[in-house]
User: Fold this.
Amino acid sequence: MLHVPGHSAFGKPWQPPLLRSAKYKLNVKIIVLKNNSLGQIKWEQMAFLGNPEYGCDLQPIDYPSVAQACGVRGYSIVDPNQCQDVLAEAFAEQGPTLIKATVDPNEPPLPPKVSFEQARHMIEALVRGTPDGAKIAKQLAKDTIRQLI
Ligand SMILES: Cc1ncc(C[n+]2csc(CCOP(=O)(O)OP(=O)(O)O)c2C)c(N)n1
Ligand SMILES: [Mg+2]
Assistant:
């Protein structure tokens, strides 16, 4: 079984997946997507409201250590080049494992269709001073170009 929560979503009910899979030696693989952010809320603030992101930062939590404390082997991916090897190792192990995957907090989760309103709100949010606005604008430009070519 594969469980892929965000960093915050895992923080709320982490005991059942970790403790149950450790107790019953279930072959559950948990991949925690770590962006140190309430990502969905951040992008809603920008694309729905046109406001700069506010109050969405999360403190980093070392979930592999939390997992180890519960008897579940923990892994960590920081560099995308490690992805294949670390996942292969974690998936080859019998029993539960947790993999912390660090992802870019400035990568916009683009929906299949972006409305004119959403695009306008995003630009407003950036102009009004969203933290790391320049990095977000760069990612948006890269993603748009990638979709065109
Ligand atoms: C129990 C609960 N509390 C609050 C929310 C509102 N909520 C929706 S997405 C989100 C942030 C999720 O952050 P994270 O799990 O880190 O995932 P990300 O969006 O960063 O990938 C929150 C708080 C919710 N859906 N469920
Ligand atoms: Mg997150």
